[in-house]
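Field log, afternoon session.

UNIT: design team B
ACTIVITY: writing a sequence onto a fixed backbone
BACKBONE:
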């Protein structure tokens, strides 16, 4: 019988229950410890998910010998130091998005994990959905031909109360950005993964409606490495908010999808097969985010099989590097080459 991989969770905020549910649901993992700066939050979380150990200092959690891997669910700007500390404690790491908010910190994180011989993975749960997996395979197989236009529309709604509810939100120091770095990073990761990467960008960003340091609205024109052109629109200021929407156009077909499913799938060879594409996501009792479940299990198998996790640190940083280039382009009003 294969031993269970023992997880700890650092940070008991909004996203952490999705990790806990996935860890508890998988036959390959068990949740043995949690930490949060707030004692009440750590205690409540431990009680809810029947976790034997809870602490307020994450370094105490890292000192637990039997712990194999930690899920990092803290504010974005804190990821770097925690990952580095975890690596020195010889713990594998599964980090929530974004990997970090500064390029030099991401480099340090990746390098330290390699030096210490631990695995570094990052959660981009949308990649694990049936919809995205199906689209990726079609593009890879050349079903829509040479890519021509690739667009990501990331239009969400967060009111001022959302930003005021936690001191780190909407700040450069801890959030690292706004609509793109926090909410839009998932769609940007999908854009990069599906298209193969971006070579240059020209952008405009601003806080048009919210009283925050960072952007609540952004528009970017991009050129992909494969020559296709694209647009990324991101905001947290439109009501009602929209589903994350990705449009991929090739010289032999078009695929458009959002969170609800495939909206259009037409190819020169097969015609309109939109209604024929089966992208129903499986359901697991007690698990709200199937994507998180797959990432938790993937990290467990990566450790057991001694392989790289689904999204490595090097892969995860690409979305942040693009977002930082968008900010650079907007600030200096110039085209930026990646």
């Amino acid at each position: 019988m294969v031993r269970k991989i023992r997880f700890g969770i650092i940070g008991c905020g909004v996203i952490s229950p999705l990790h806990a549910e996935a860890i508890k649901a998988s036959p390959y993992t068990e949740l043995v410890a949690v930490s949060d700066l707030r004692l009440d939050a750590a205690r409540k979380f431990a009680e809810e998910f029947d976790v034997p150990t809870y602490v307020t200092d994450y370094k105490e959690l890292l000192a637990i010998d039997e712990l194999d891997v930690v899920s990092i669910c803290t504010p974005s700007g804190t990821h770097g130091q925690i990952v580095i500390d975890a690596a020195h404690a010889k713990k594998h790491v599964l980090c929530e998005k974004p990997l970090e908010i500064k390029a030099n910190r991401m480099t340090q994180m990746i390098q330290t994990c390699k030096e210490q011989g631990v695995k570094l993975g990052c959660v981009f749960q949308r990649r694990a959905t049936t919809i995205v997996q199906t689209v990726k395979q079609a593009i890879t197989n050349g079903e829509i031909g040479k890519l021509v236009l690739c667009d990501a529309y990331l239009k969400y709604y967060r009111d001022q109360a959302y930003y005021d509810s936690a001191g780190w939100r909407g700040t450069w120091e801890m959030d690292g950005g706004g609509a793109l770095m926090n909410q839009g990073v998932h769609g940007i990761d999908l854009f990069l993964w599906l298209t193969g990467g971006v070579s240059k960008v020209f952008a405009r960003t601003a806080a048009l409606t919210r009283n925050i340091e960072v952007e609540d609205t952004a528009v970017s024109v991009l050129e992909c490495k494969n020559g296709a052109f694209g647009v990324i629109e991101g905001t947290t200021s439109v009501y009602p908010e929209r589903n994350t929407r990705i449009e991929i156009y090739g010289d032999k077909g078009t695929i458009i999808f959002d969170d609800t499913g495939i909206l259009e799938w037409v190819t020169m060879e097969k015609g309109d097969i939109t209604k024929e594409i089966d992208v129903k996501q499986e359901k697991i009792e007690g698990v709200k985010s199937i994507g998180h479940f797959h990432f938790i299990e993937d990290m467990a198998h990566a450790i057991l099989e001694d392989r790289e996790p689904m999204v490595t640190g090097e892969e995860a940083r690409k979305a942040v590097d693009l977002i930082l280039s968008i900010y650079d382009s907007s600030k200096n009003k110039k085209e930026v080459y990646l």
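LOG NOTE: The mean pLDDT is 97.
NEXT ACTIVITY: expression trials, pending approval
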